[in-house]
């Protein structure tokens, strides 16, 4: 498996191919539907974002409550297609990577190619296992959204699969 780290830049990801397994280390941000909606509203209103989008990675995840003695609860991926309506704008503003589960729509696949982004899938159904790769957690925005608040996670060797590479290669075989 290839090891990569954030912030993700094009040089780091341009050789990755759909279907390739990687281990990601560094900072990633959790965000689901409602957080995405607020990020896009902030962009449209020219307001400051809670984190720098340039070369960032967003993980479509809403962790469960943190058990005593743990850093984070179960933190598996959520269905990515629910974020499709927002992804093009975020990629255009510099977002480099997305992590979730499932296939993406045509507009997102085209935006990934256009803006040289990348889409990873995390191992679904393994949220309780994935939390062991999270080394720290900090809530940074939208706390009123509960588990859908934006969290800054520091991860180490987080296991992922490249689902859509910068050239449009798609593990789901979509054209």
CATH architecture: Alpha-Beta Barrel
Strand order of the largest sheet: 2-3-4-5-7
Major β-sheet profile: 5 strands, mixed, barrel
Global shape = globular
**CATH class wording:** Alpha Beta
Helix-strand sequence: EHEHEHEHEHEE
Query: Helix content range of the residues, please?
Result: 10-25%
Q: State the fourth-level CATH superfamily.
A: Fe-S hydro-lyase, tartrate dehydratase beta-type, catalytic domain
How large a portion of the residues is in β-strands, by DSSP E?
25-35%
Instruction: Look at the helices and sheets and give the structural class.
Output: alpha/beta
Q: How many E strands?
A: 7
How large is the count of helical segments? 5
Low-pLDDT stretches: none
What number of structural domains do the residues give?
A: 1
Q: How far is the N terminus from the C terminus?
A: 26 Å
Per the CATH scheme, the topology name is fumarase
Taking all Cα atoms into account, the compactness measure Rg is 15 Å
> Roughly what is the average pLDDT, rounded to an integer?
95
Characterization of the model:
With 175 residues, this protein is of the alpha/beta class. The chain has one domain (2-164): fumarase (Alpha-Beta Barrel), CATH 3.20.130. The protein has five helices and seven strands. Helix 2 packs across helix 3 and helix 3 runs parallel beside helix 4. The protein is globular. The two termini are 26 Å apart. The mean pLDDT is 95.
